[in-house]
Amino acid sequence: MRKTGIRLAALLAGILAAPLPALAADAGRCGLAKVMELPVRLEGGRVVAEGTINGKPIRIILDTGSYKTLIPLAAARRLELDPQLLASLGHGKGIGGTAAMGSVPVRSLTIGDWRADAMNMQILDKDLGPNTDLLLGQDFFSQADLELDVAHGMVRMLRPENCEDVPLAYWSDHYAEVPMRLPQGRRTGNELRVALNGYEFWAKLDTGAPSSSVQACVAHLAGVHETDPGVVAGADSHGIGKKAVPTWIGTFDRFTVGDEVLRPVRLRVGDFGGCEDVQRAEFHGMLLGLDFIRAHHIYLANSRGRAYLTLLDEPGAANRGPIFTPFAKQAPGGPPPEPERDPAAGD
User: Which stretches of sequence are listed as region Disordered (predicted)?
Assistant: First the structure.
């Protein structure tokens, strides 16, 4: 992991005030102004938070892989809103197909300590998981830098002030710094530069995916195939559409993100679409799901196109279980695998 001698000199409580303490004498008055602080918890492979719509409590799912913030149609009706499906809004698109979208007026929305009033929000004619009232996506998160400390139950949106090139991993001297592509156009999430077996590509960081997965074409370019010894059937992937995508689980010698190297790793692989042109601008070859995210403290610097990651419990790495937890296909009569969802961007 990369190490730097420049770090924030204050504890977290001090960091989230504005103005903020200087990082160091030669770094000027660098600080992080809080936009939002949101307590979260893990439930069934999802990052869950609480909020309100029109004063009524709602259950929020955080999904950095979704470009839009969405209310499921059933939830809109449950909240006694007035939803309308509109052909002009197009369709939400994701793994397995599409779903109709619409619009609904909302008097007020609160998410953590953030509030907005008098807005139209988009709805999706799709079940997004048990008791899901709101899917919080990149149209919200991309407005500031995003800190993901899911293992410790906290997500923050921050704005750096006077930080220039100062590293923003304030919690540790040890971190990996990674190039990041921002959500833009048909890129629906933050994408980090990673490598499998030395083959480099972009991977989307997706809190909406319970486990990480790799495009089959990328696995092949990295030298891993479904006919290799030790390959087993993976759980099917289910997304916004009705079609299930079959997967298989293969072993890669190493996974690299910045200065962090994990070896060996087992990952779920499938043909999720888009492999016809791996060089196109919006192509991403992997989803870095919640298994990867919960094992790291992550700062996504949307303000500068960089990400900072610290692998948690690094001193005890020899005793740590695998970071990636691919779901195997259900055995006959066994318990069902955890569902995989990729509620998508929408056109």
Answer: 322-347
- Give per-residue pLDDT as tens, 12-57: 233 333 333 333 334 468 999 999 999 999 998 999 999 999 999 9
Determine the topology of domain 176-319 in CATH. Cathepsin D, subunit A; domain 1 (2.40.70)
Higher per-residue confidence, 292 vs 124: 292
Provide the H-helix boundaries in 16-115: 73-78
Does the pLDDT of residue 182 top 90, yes or no?
no
Tokens, residue 286: 């992997």
Domain residue ranges in the chain? 176-319
Residues 6+ apart with CB under 8 A from 248: 226, 231, 232, 233, 234, 268, 269, 270
More confident residue, 279 or 347: 279
**Alpha-helix residue ranges (DSSP H) falling in the chain:** 12-15, 73-78, 138-141, 216-221, 290-293
DSSP 228-257: STT-EEEEEE--SSS--EEEEEEEES-EEE
Helix (H) or strand (E) holding 298: strand 296-301
Ramachandran category for residue 139: left, alpha or beta (phi over 0 → left; psi -120 to 50 → alpha): alpha
pTM of the model: 0.83
Q: How many CA atoms are closer than 13 Å to the CA of 14, on its beta-carbon side?
A: 11
CB atoms within 10 A of CB 193: 16
> What three-state secondary structure class fits 164?
coil
| pLDDT winner (highest mean) among 128-132, 289-293, 316-320 | 289-293
If 0-12 CB within 10 Å is exposed, 13-18 middle and 19+ buried, where does residue 188 land?
buried
Nearest Cα to 168, choosing from 135, 146, 197, 192?
146
Measured CA to CA, the distance from residue 261 to residue 256 in angstroms comes to 5
C-beta atoms surrounding 28 within 10 Å:
14
**CA diameter of the chain:** 64
